[in-house]
Specification:
Layout (H helix, E strand, L loop, with lengths): L1 E8 L2 E6 L4 E6 L11 E7 L3 E7 L5 E5 L4 E6 L3 E7 L6 H13 L3 E7 L7 H13 L4 E3 L5 H12 L3 E5 L6 H8 L8 H7 L10 E4 L6 E4 L13 H6 L5 H4 L16 H7 L5 H18 L2
Parallel strand pairs: 3-5, 8-9, 8-11, 9-10, 11-13
Antiparallel strand pairs: 1-2, 1-4, 2-3, 4-5, 6-7, 12-13
The site of zinc ion has 7 residues, from helix 8.
Protein backbone atom coordinates (compact mmCIF):
# COMPACT_ATOMS: atom_id res chain seq x y z
CA UNK A 1 0.00 0.00 0.00
CA UNK A 2 1.16 3.49 -0.76
CA UNK A 3 0.53 6.57 1.34
CA UNK A 4 1.86 9.85 2.65
CA UNK A 5 3.26 10.58 6.09
CA UNK A 6 1.05 13.22 7.73
CA UNK A 7 2.66 13.25 11.16
CA UNK A 8 5.78 11.92 12.80
CA UNK A 9 6.55 11.36 16.49
CA UNK A 10 9.85 9.64 17.05
CA UNK A 11 9.51 6.30 15.30
CA UNK A 12 5.74 6.49 15.10
CA UNK A 13 4.13 7.87 12.03
CA UNK A 14 0.61 8.45 10.81
CA UNK A 15 0.35 7.49 7.17
CA UNK A 16 -2.61 8.46 5.04
CA UNK A 17 -3.34 5.89 2.37
CA UNK A 18 -4.48 6.63 -1.15
CA UNK A 19 -8.07 5.74 -0.14
CA UNK A 20 -8.02 8.39 2.59
CA UNK A 21 -7.71 5.99 5.53
CA UNK A 22 -4.99 6.58 8.06
CA UNK A 23 -2.75 4.01 9.71
CA UNK A 24 -0.39 4.14 12.65
CA UNK A 25 2.92 3.07 11.24
CA UNK A 26 6.33 2.31 12.57
CA UNK A 27 9.69 1.52 11.05
CA UNK A 28 11.70 -1.64 11.37
CA UNK A 29 15.41 -1.90 11.89
CA UNK A 30 17.50 1.17 11.45
CA UNK A 31 15.28 3.00 9.02
CA UNK A 32 15.16 6.63 10.11
CA UNK A 33 14.88 10.06 8.58
CA UNK A 34 11.31 9.65 7.37
CA UNK A 35 9.45 12.91 7.64
CA UNK A 36 6.11 14.57 7.14
CA UNK A 37 5.27 14.84 3.46
CA UNK A 38 7.15 11.69 2.50
CA UNK A 39 5.43 9.24 0.20
CA UNK A 40 5.94 5.73 1.52
CA UNK A 41 5.14 2.09 0.79
CA UNK A 42 3.78 0.29 3.81
CA UNK A 43 3.09 -3.28 4.77
CA UNK A 44 -0.30 -3.47 6.54
CA UNK A 45 -0.18 -4.93 10.05
CA UNK A 46 -2.99 -5.62 12.53
CA UNK A 47 -6.22 -3.64 12.20
CA UNK A 48 -5.08 -0.12 11.48
CA UNK A 49 -1.32 -0.40 11.74
CA UNK A 50 1.50 -0.82 9.32
CA UNK A 51 5.22 -0.88 8.90
CA UNK A 52 7.01 1.50 6.58
CA UNK A 53 8.99 -0.52 4.08
CA UNK A 54 10.22 2.13 1.71
CA UNK A 55 10.40 5.89 1.31
CA UNK A 56 9.69 6.87 -2.29
CA UNK A 57 12.05 9.24 -4.05
CA UNK A 58 11.71 12.77 -2.71
CA UNK A 59 11.24 15.83 -4.85
CA UNK A 60 12.90 17.88 -2.12
CA UNK A 61 13.49 18.06 1.61
CA UNK A 62 13.58 21.24 3.64
CA UNK A 63 15.62 21.12 6.79
CA UNK A 64 17.80 23.18 9.04
CA UNK A 65 20.93 22.09 10.80
CA UNK A 66 23.31 23.49 13.35
CA UNK A 67 26.32 22.14 15.22
CA UNK A 68 24.20 20.04 17.54
CA UNK A 69 21.71 18.44 15.25
CA UNK A 70 19.70 18.68 12.13
CA UNK A 71 15.95 19.02 12.01
CA UNK A 72 13.75 18.15 9.10
CA UNK A 73 10.82 20.37 8.33
CA UNK A 74 9.05 18.46 5.57
CA UNK A 75 9.54 16.62 2.30
CA UNK A 76 7.94 17.05 -1.12
CA UNK A 77 7.01 20.67 -0.54
CA UNK A 78 5.93 22.84 -3.48
CA UNK A 79 6.08 26.15 -1.71
CA UNK A 80 7.14 27.69 1.52
CA UNK A 81 4.92 30.15 3.37
CA UNK A 82 7.21 32.13 5.64
CA UNK A 83 5.00 33.72 8.29
CA UNK A 84 6.26 36.94 9.86
CA UNK A 85 4.52 39.44 12.13
CA UNK A 86 5.13 42.67 13.99
CA UNK A 87 4.28 41.50 17.53
CA UNK A 88 6.62 39.98 18.42
CA UNK A 89 8.67 41.60 15.68
CA UNK A 90 10.13 39.00 13.34
CA UNK A 91 13.85 38.41 12.96
CA UNK A 92 15.31 39.56 9.66
CA UNK A 93 18.17 37.12 10.05
CA UNK A 94 15.90 34.08 10.45
CA UNK A 95 13.68 35.22 7.60
CA UNK A 96 16.69 35.54 5.32
CA UNK A 97 17.91 32.10 6.34
CA UNK A 98 14.54 30.49 5.68
CA UNK A 99 14.57 32.03 2.20
CA UNK A 100 18.08 30.75 1.54
CA UNK A 101 17.02 27.29 2.73
CA UNK A 102 14.05 27.38 0.38
CA UNK A 103 15.92 28.64 -2.67
CA UNK A 104 18.77 26.21 -2.24
CA UNK A 105 16.24 23.35 -2.00
CA UNK A 106 14.45 24.70 -5.09
CA UNK A 107 11.24 25.56 -3.22
CA UNK A 108 9.49 28.80 -4.10
CA UNK A 109 8.87 31.08 -1.12
CA UNK A 110 6.00 33.39 -0.26
CA UNK A 111 6.12 35.76 2.72
CA UNK A 112 2.97 36.23 4.79
CA UNK A 113 3.04 39.43 6.79
CA UNK A 114 0.50 38.44 9.40
CA UNK A 115 -1.26 40.40 12.18
CA UNK A 116 -1.65 43.37 9.85
CA UNK A 117 -4.54 44.44 12.10
CA UNK A 118 -1.83 45.53 14.54
CA UNK A 119 -0.82 48.63 12.68
CA UNK A 120 1.96 50.00 14.86
CA UNK A 121 4.93 48.06 13.47
CA UNK A 122 3.60 47.72 9.93
CA UNK A 123 5.61 50.46 8.27
CA UNK A 124 8.84 49.07 9.70
CA UNK A 125 7.89 45.55 8.65
CA UNK A 126 7.02 46.59 5.10
CA UNK A 127 10.29 48.46 4.87
CA UNK A 128 12.39 45.55 6.04
CA UNK A 129 10.60 43.20 3.61
CA UNK A 130 11.08 45.53 0.66
CA UNK A 131 14.35 43.87 -0.19
CA UNK A 132 12.55 40.54 -0.74
CA UNK A 133 9.81 42.18 -2.75
CA UNK A 134 12.54 43.46 -5.07
CA UNK A 135 13.82 39.89 -5.38
CA UNK A 136 10.39 38.87 -6.61
CA UNK A 137 9.11 37.16 -3.48
CA UNK A 138 5.33 37.61 -3.22
CA UNK A 139 4.50 39.38 0.05
CA UNK A 140 0.95 38.99 1.28
CA UNK A 141 -0.54 40.87 4.20
CA UNK A 142 -2.91 38.86 6.33
CA UNK A 143 -4.92 38.99 9.51
CA UNK A 144 -6.86 36.17 11.11
CA UNK A 145 -9.42 38.79 12.08
CA UNK A 146 -10.27 39.18 8.39
CA UNK A 147 -10.90 35.48 7.67
CA UNK A 148 -12.77 35.94 4.38
CA UNK A 149 -10.05 38.18 2.99
CA UNK A 150 -7.38 35.75 4.15
CA UNK A 151 -9.09 32.84 2.38
CA UNK A 152 -9.60 34.89 -0.76
CA UNK A 153 -5.92 35.87 -0.85
CA UNK A 154 -4.41 32.53 0.07
CA UNK A 155 -6.58 29.70 -1.22
CA UNK A 156 -5.88 30.37 -4.92
CA UNK A 157 -2.13 30.27 -4.22
CA UNK A 158 -2.39 27.01 -2.30
CA UNK A 159 -4.53 25.22 -4.87
CA UNK A 160 -3.32 21.71 -5.70
CA UNK A 161 0.02 22.27 -3.98
CA UNK A 162 1.73 21.15 -0.81
CA UNK A 163 2.60 24.28 1.16
CA UNK A 164 4.55 24.51 4.38
CA UNK A 165 3.86 27.13 7.06
CA UNK A 166 7.18 28.09 8.59
CA UNK A 167 8.25 30.82 10.98
CA UNK A 168 9.21 31.84 14.48
CA UNK A 169 6.94 31.02 17.38
CA UNK A 170 3.97 33.30 17.85
CA UNK A 171 3.79 34.61 14.28
CA UNK A 172 0.37 33.00 13.76
CA UNK A 173 1.02 29.89 11.65
CA UNK A 174 -1.51 27.68 13.43
CA UNK A 175 -4.04 30.52 13.60
CA UNK A 176 -3.82 30.92 9.81
CA UNK A 177 -4.18 27.16 9.39
CA UNK A 178 -7.33 27.21 11.54
CA UNK A 179 -8.87 29.93 9.37
CA UNK A 180 -8.17 28.01 6.17
CA UNK A 181 -9.06 24.60 7.62
CA UNK A 182 -11.48 25.11 10.54
CA UNK A 183 -11.68 21.40 11.44
CA UNK A 184 -7.89 21.31 11.92
CA UNK A 185 -8.36 22.90 15.37
CA UNK A 186 -4.64 23.29 15.79
CA UNK A 187 -3.42 24.53 19.14
CA UNK A 188 -2.47 28.18 19.19
CA UNK A 189 -0.96 30.38 21.84
CA UNK A 190 -4.40 31.84 22.41
CA UNK A 191 -5.72 28.45 23.55
CA UNK A 192 -2.69 27.96 25.77
CA UNK A 193 -3.33 31.25 27.51
CA UNK A 194 -7.03 30.44 27.89
CA UNK A 195 -6.25 27.02 29.32
CA UNK A 196 -3.56 28.41 31.57
CA UNK A 197 -1.14 25.80 30.30
CA UNK A 198 1.51 28.37 29.52
CA UNK A 199 3.15 28.65 26.16
CA UNK A 200 1.92 25.38 24.76
CA UNK A 201 2.11 25.88 21.05
CA UNK A 202 2.72 23.66 18.08
CA UNK A 203 5.11 20.89 19.05
CA UNK A 204 5.13 18.73 15.94
CA UNK A 205 4.76 19.04 12.21
CA UNK A 206 1.50 17.92 10.68
CA UNK A 207 -0.04 17.81 7.22
CA UNK A 208 -3.68 18.85 6.68
CA UNK A 209 -5.92 18.89 3.62
CA UNK A 210 -7.54 22.07 2.40
CA UNK A 211 -11.35 21.90 2.03
CA UNK A 212 -12.54 19.73 -0.88
CA UNK A 213 -9.04 18.32 -1.24
CA UNK A 214 -7.75 21.40 -3.01
CA UNK A 215 -4.22 21.09 -1.64
CA UNK A 216 -2.16 20.25 1.43
CA UNK A 217 -1.00 22.60 4.16
CA UNK A 218 1.68 21.64 6.67
CA UNK A 219 1.92 23.35 10.07
CA UNK A 220 5.26 23.27 11.87
CA UNK A 221 6.62 24.31 15.26
CA UNK A 222 8.24 27.73 15.49
CA UNK A 223 12.03 27.86 15.36
CA UNK A 224 14.57 30.06 17.10
CA UNK A 225 17.58 29.09 15.03
CA UNK A 226 18.09 28.27 11.39
CA UNK A 227 21.53 26.84 10.82
CA UNK A 228 22.38 25.88 7.26
CA UNK A 229 25.43 23.77 8.04
CA UNK A 230 24.45 21.17 5.50
CA UNK A 231 24.88 23.57 2.60
CA UNK A 232 28.10 23.81 0.63
CA UNK A 233 29.46 27.18 -0.40
CA UNK A 234 27.83 26.78 -3.82
CA UNK A 235 24.48 25.83 -2.23
CA UNK A 236 24.61 28.93 -0.05
CA UNK A 237 25.36 31.10 -3.10
CA UNK A 238 22.41 29.47 -4.87
CA UNK A 239 20.31 30.57 -1.92
CA UNK A 240 21.01 34.17 -2.96
CA UNK A 241 19.41 34.36 -6.42
CA UNK A 242 20.40 38.01 -6.88
CA UNK A 243 24.07 36.90 -6.97
CA UNK A 244 23.55 34.66 -9.97
CA UNK A 245 24.24 36.94 -12.92
CA UNK A 246 27.19 38.55 -11.09
CA UNK A 247 28.80 35.20 -10.30
CA UNK A 248 29.17 34.68 -14.03
CA UNK A 249 31.74 37.48 -14.14
CA UNK A 250 33.87 36.26 -11.19
CA UNK A 251 37.49 35.77 -12.23
CA UNK A 252 37.95 32.50 -10.33
CA UNK A 253 35.68 29.54 -10.88
CA UNK A 254 35.88 28.70 -7.16
CA UNK A 255 35.31 32.27 -5.99
CA UNK A 256 33.65 32.45 -2.56
CA UNK A 257 32.54 36.07 -3.15
CA UNK A 258 34.03 37.14 0.17
CA UNK A 259 37.38 38.70 -0.68
CA UNK A 260 38.63 37.56 -4.09
CA UNK A 261 39.93 40.03 -6.65
CA UNK A 262 37.81 40.23 -9.78
CA UNK A 263 34.69 39.02 -7.94
CA UNK A 264 31.48 39.99 -9.74
CA UNK A 265 29.42 39.79 -6.57
CA UNK A 266 31.71 42.13 -4.64
CA UNK A 267 31.70 44.53 -7.58
CA UNK A 268 27.88 44.54 -7.58
CA UNK A 269 27.95 45.05 -3.82
CA UNK A 270 30.22 48.05 -4.21
CA UNK A 271 27.90 49.54 -6.83
CA UNK A 272 24.94 49.04 -4.51
CA UNK A 273 23.26 46.57 -6.87
CA UNK A 274 23.46 43.88 -4.19
CA UNK A 275 22.42 45.00 -0.73
CA UNK A 276 24.88 45.07 2.15
CA UNK A 277 22.45 43.29 4.45
CA UNK A 278 22.09 40.39 2.07
CA UNK A 279 25.81 40.01 1.52
CA UNK A 280 26.37 40.17 5.28
CA UNK A 281 23.90 37.33 5.77
CA UNK A 282 25.67 35.33 3.05
CA UNK A 283 28.98 35.89 4.81
CA UNK A 284 27.55 34.98 8.22
CA UNK A 285 26.17 31.68 6.94
CA UNK A 286 29.38 30.82 5.13
CA UNK A 287 31.68 31.62 8.05
CA UNK A 288 29.50 29.58 10.41
CA UNK A 289 29.72 26.62 8.09
CA UNK A 290 33.47 26.97 7.65
CA UNK A 291 34.15 27.13 11.39
CA UNK A 292 31.94 24.08 11.96
CA UNK A 293 33.78 21.86 9.50
CA UNK A 294 37.13 22.59 11.18
CA UNK A 295 36.23 20.40 14.14
N1 LIG B 1 -3.88 40.46 16.28
C1 LIG B 1 -3.61 39.31 15.69
N2 LIG B 1 -3.21 38.26 16.43
C2 LIG B 1 -2.94 37.10 15.78
C3 LIG B 1 -3.05 36.97 14.38
N3 LIG B 1 -2.68 35.71 14.05
C4 LIG B 1 -2.36 35.09 15.19
N4 LIG B 1 -2.51 35.92 16.25
C5 LIG B 1 -2.25 35.59 17.66
O1 LIG B 1 -0.88 35.34 17.83
C6 LIG B 1 -0.67 34.34 18.82
C7 LIG B 1 0.21 33.23 18.26
O2 LIG B 1 -0.48 32.54 17.26
P1 LIG B 1 -0.15 31.01 16.86
O3 LIG B 1 -1.03 30.69 15.71
O4 LIG B 1 -0.20 30.14 18.04
O5 LIG B 1 1.38 31.17 16.40
P2 LIG B 1 2.33 30.04 15.76
O6 LIG B 1 3.13 30.71 14.71
O7 LIG B 1 1.55 28.85 15.35
O8 LIG B 1 3.30 29.70 16.99
P3 LIG B 1 4.11 28.30 17.27
O9 LIG B 1 3.15 27.19 17.16
O10 LIG B 1 4.65 28.49 18.65
O11 LIG B 1 5.21 28.24 16.27
C8 LIG B 1 -2.06 33.87 19.23
O12 LIG B 1 -2.40 34.47 20.45
C9 LIG B 1 -2.94 34.32 18.11
O13 LIG B 1 -4.26 34.57 18.53
C10 LIG B 1 -3.49 38.09 13.62
O14 LIG B 1 -3.64 38.09 12.40
N5 LIG B 1 -3.74 39.24 14.34
MG1 LIG C 1 1.63 26.89 15.93
ZN1 LIG D 1 32.88 36.03 -6.69
Amino acid sequence: MKGRVISAHGRHYIVELENGQTRQCYTRGKKTGICVGDFVRIQPQAEDEGSIEETLTRKNLLYRSDEMRSKQFAANVDQLLIVVATEPFFSEDLTGRALTGAWSADISPIILLNKCDLTSGMARAQESLEIYRELGVPIISSSIHEPEQLKQDLLPLLKDKTSLLLGQSGMGKSSILNVLIPHARAHTQEHSVALGTGKHTTTSTRLYHLPNNTGCLIDSPGFQAFGLYHLTQTDVANGFPEFKTHIESCRFYNCTHLHEPGCGVLAALKQGVISNKRHELYERILLENQSATRY
